Structure prediction request, 517 residues.
Amino acid sequence: MSVSVRIPTILRTYTGGESEVTAAGGTLAEVLDDLDASYAGIKGRILDEAGQLRRFVNVYVGNEDVRFLDNLATATPDGTQISVIPAVAGG
Amino acid sequence: MSTVVAETTTPSEPTLREGAFGHAKGLSCRECGHAVELGPHYACPECFGPLEIAYDFPQVTREEIEAGPANIWRYKALLPVPSDIEQSPNMEPGFTRLLRANNLGRELGIDNLWVKDDSTNPTNSFKDRVVACALSAATEFHAKVFACPSTGNLANAVAAAGARAGIKTVVFIPSNLEKPKQVNSAVYTDSLIAVNGNYDDVNKLASEIAGEEDGWAFVNVNVRPYYAEGSKTLGYEIAEQLGWRLPDQIVIPVASGSQLTKVDKAFQELIKLGLVEDKPYKVYGAQAEGCSPVSVAYKAGVDAIRPVKPDTIAKSLAIGNPADGIYVLDICRRTGGAVEDITDDQVREAIVLLARTEGIFTETAGGTTVGVLKKLVETGQLDTSLETVVINTGHGLKTLDAVADSVGPAATIDPSYAAFAATGLA
Ligand SMILES: Cc1ncc(COP(=O)(O)O)c(C=O)c1O
Ligand SMILES: [Zn+2]
Prediction:
């Protein structure tokens, strides 16, 4: 299953400057593993030592924050758009 | 002459003017302390934590501050702005009135109560403070576009400040926003974008655009560290207006939680700089029940904030995923305060209460704050013998509909004395 992942500026050093990359996996966890296979180290930036999403990163599957879905177990059907975005405060 | 060079993401990034950010010496991650050079950066490259301004403060005296202009630039030595900031066109917000609220205090049973009324800023909310600092940063970074995602007030402030500074603005709001807030942006800019979704959706979109477009300064995204410092001036002013001392208790509305954390930062800086005496103070956060992720976490005694889908009339506070929420929890717990929430009906009642006791017409955010103050008293969470400040962050004319059905003529009569006498008001 091929998905598209939007990469935030601070992680583009891992993707050679690419802002959008493709990855494979049926769940968000699998997608992150696959991403890490292509861009070594990137998963450790998104997840903390306990393997959970870092506090200040928001991950969206489609337009939904995965914390409203099944977190890392969220399904990522073929063609899904995933976005990794730093949390920002002030509105 | 030495020049400060921004951390280069693109080789073409222009050199920064010396002293462009005053006494700011760099950016520092609030979570892990990682240092980043001054630039339009906002997320820690190590842990995604928020980057904050780190300073090398000079010795500032009360007299120097008091000799400054009657706006936020009197505190320019403590902000990331150049010493010639008054030379650039800006809205000159701040130094709003601190009103003694004896009538409201009597009503609530609080001996010594003040309202810091920020509804009198140029675009009628506290957001003019943060935008003024963001505009300075955007200018120094040679930004082409001044932008923001907003719950309404920020859009008003960005659109107006951008117009005055002659920089193109693009502001993004949820499409279901109160009509007056839409008009108050659209009048200043032809680029108001209404997004089908809530603030959190708008925020996501803005973050994605910020990652793609060069030369765009999103005030609360890529120039957020500079922007957020503007809220410190609320804390400085309250202390100065009280005669250079801190209040015992302060009640502050919480959306993203940025303002509350910066008022606390301001109090801490004033203590450190010796401008006020060190003393304990309690910070209380106010939310509306329909969007109360921080209050819920506070009451549950947990450190993690579970995001929510907002549903409240307090749209300016309707951020379901508050990035600074965990810091609000830290501060309210550390100082012995609390975070509380109230219903939409209580928000409406509090708007009318403040208007009828103090002659101040607040928007739903202020209704939330005053209503939470009332609830804190009723539930025994607030010591009514201590000096208390409540912040009114926005003007009621922007959310007229919230109370339009609850207030109106006491009677509709024919123009005759008899008809008037019949009302019983004679
Ligand atoms: C009137 C008003 N008060 C308070 C807030 C909350 O500010 P913060 O996001 O810094 O918590 C906002 C906007 O977000 C606002 O518009
Ligand atoms: Zn960090």
